């Protein structure tokens, strides 16, 4: 093949100038966020009608949950979706949260990039303050109808009901109606949107979102009234409100250059050292000095004077300096017990539940906690891939499972080692549901649509460890089950042949057949570990309903314990809540 | 062709209890057999009543428990025993089967009836209640159980009133009495006399013998050829065929003829490892029936052919050659190591087979002429005393 360099080249001509800078300037102007959204709505999860419906519900529910938790209220949420025309739905989401003061109502719902969560480092569902107003905008763009917001902030206070539109040019709210209405709720917020949408089932549907939300939020009471059929009521499964996440200052290892620049320019008159110790977490005076030395900048330099190379050096030094990991109380996991409670809500018939919460860890200065829960058996299909539920700060992630670090951690785990079948490079196959929750101050999503978690090494490692830890618990349970089953099988063999042997012996010896059969039955417990099943059930006593009794009690005489105690409940499970077994214990 | 309608009837009801002859009417050997079965059953019931695992001890019938007795020149079963237990998943089924057979054998002995091992299979086969599992899935499952019972209670098959399908034919200058009927084996026409499965003295007696030796041929077709040519008359012998691997009846008859009538036995098999194996079993017994070697083996049986050396000796055409297969070669190499083939002349014989690289069927002797076997091959071999032992 001839290299392209050797091919005859077109003679190069200077390109013709097509427009002057002045002409171009006449077209250059500010783009409003709303305009941007109109053109790029896919970036925020409104790419198609089905997804738009999901995103709308999701944003509203996430906000409601965040508000309730921040206010210390056990959330009670109603989601009502009505089909009002062809491809048109009315979505009503009502919560019992703290409500919104009248002055903020319009801005929160009808100004993009307005919110309380962007400017602080605190674990919350919403992060950017763009979601719900994007939903309002989407509704407005597709149906022309304003959003109707009702909110009440306390007993005896008025309930305000306003109609809202977004002026897409100025990214400013436009209140179309404003009234005070009677509302029997003490406090809460209700949003009503009419939008073009499609109601779908399946993994990416609203139903699935709500079912999963219920798993990750056992303290949530939810009523879902779908377009068709009866409403589903999920009663609250836990009266325990998640601990409030502490707001933290940025950690030196996680700060980005732009962020650093902003922090410095926020306090232009302070010294660098002061900014470092005051506005970062875990930076003592000594650490600040060390950073300054590394960056070769004077600690007394004015923050406002740090530019160019100095800024770069400072940023680099921040990433390199040895500093304590951020404190973990800014991250709130669901917790092992509540995770199981949540799973039980979604899979009430499973035979085994397990969960593992990892100790907090850090990626790029952001503390995070990974936890994994799983449910096994019961009415789940045995020949399908495991149901993997991904959560980031308790919010279900429903799209892009293939691009997500969480899914990867599940299918990269060798489930065969845990007695679950797994085709090469895929998800495990079996009656299994896996929940993976990533709680972090800043969840590294791969895109603004918050659909998949990015692959950071530290994160991947924790994800894997958590899945493995939980998998080992499952393996312990399944091995005990298999053992019990094989005992059951042995028992079946002996019982199948006893009548035959008894009959032959009775004819040879001219004795009573039933008497001989009884003697065989009586000897049977000496050779089959009948206690095994009972112990298997004991292991999972907390997680599983007792296994059905294996045997009609043969004889009241307690069988002597056979051989070594059942293995399998080894140190693997030290962190689990499996109670210590009691050898020789039998329920017969 | 109209399809034959078969109706399946499940055997759920146990058959009516057998009518035992009073013990007094039984022959001593029959009483003994019944007592052995009773003892076996009683020990099982007693063990289980004590909460123990009911078990029966039987001599192992495996290569690891047989040895070649140089002095007696037979394969003997060793003393290694194995225990067949009920409460053991890999033995429970066989334990059950053993007692099903034992029960039926006691019934047969008590009633004075005899059945074939195939009939025993049907007597004991039925479907287990509430399953699709049968007590026996085939005769290949029940036959070994019968042998197990034989070794377990140290009883012969015929003492259990069982017999195999008869296999093997005989004709020649011998008169026998079988179950009271006198049979002149020189007047058997083209078909010969079928050798019964049980050839014990009680049933089969030798009345008069004029023959000087016995010739056993492996193949029925060869026997037919020789019989048609009246070979036994011309050579004054007894002509037998085992029709392949020799059944117990043939082997027992051969041993008795050899022992009681002091007749030399010659054996004519194909020139291949399988033929050598047939000869070998006749001579010193098999691993599987090592417990019966004493009654079945004929240690002085003479291997008259076909030898690998016959190819040159009789100037056979190359058309008789059949290339040795890989398995043939392996088998031959194995046989070279058998203690009873350790003798130099046997080593030479097997080496010749391997060196030839081909095997030959006895039938191939007909490539010379139809009568070659009768007129030339065998007479010359006998005359030259050209055989191996």
Can you tell me about this structure?
The complex is a heterodimer of chains A (588) and B (389). Chain A has 588 residues and is α+β, with helices and mostly antiparallel strands. Chain A has helices spanning 21-25, 33-39, 49-71, 102-110, 131-143, 206-216, 257-266, 272-279, 285-295, 308-320, 336-346, 405-411, 457-509, 513-523, 531-539, and strands at residues 76-85, 88-95, 147-152, 159-167, 172-181, 188-196, 221-225, 232-234, 352-357, 361-363, 366-376, 387-392, 395-397, 432-440. Chain A has three domains: 33-234, Heat Shock Protein 90, CATH 3.30.565; 252-320, Helicase, Ruva Protein, domain 3, CATH 1.10.8; 330-474, 2-Layer Sandwich (Ribosomal Protein S5, domain 2). In chain A, the strands form two sheets. Chain A has an eight-stranded mixed beta sheet with strand order 5-4-3-6-2-1-7-8. In chain A, strands 9, 10, 11, 12, 13 and 14 form a six-stranded mixed beta sheet that branches. The termini of chain A are far apart. The relative contact order of chain A is 0.08. By secondary structure, chain B is α/β, with parallel strands linked by helices. The longest helix of chain B is centred in the N-terminal third of the chain and has 22 residues, at 28-49. Mean pLDDT of chain B is 90; it is low at 1-10. In chain B, the strands form six sheets. Chain B has a six-stranded mixed beta sheet with strand order 10-7-13-12-14-15, with helices on both faces. In chain B, strands 9-8-11 form a three-stranded antiparallel beta sheet, with no helix packed on it. Chain B has a two-stranded antiparallel sheet with strand order 1-4. In chain B, a hairpin with a 2-residue loop joins strand 8 (174-178) and strand 9 (181-184). Chain B has two domains: 23-53 and 88-163, Orthogonal Bundle (Arc Repressor Mutant, subunit A); 169-383, Dna Topoisomerase Vi A Subunit, Chain: A, domain 2, CATH 3.40.1360. The A-B interface holds A 489-490, 493-494, 496-497, 499-501, 503-505, 507-509, 511, 516, 519-520, 522-524, 526-528 and B 14, 17, 37-38, 41-42, 44-45, 48-49, 51-53, 86-87, 89, 92-93, 95-96, 99-100, 102-103, 106-107, 128-129, 131, 133, 135.
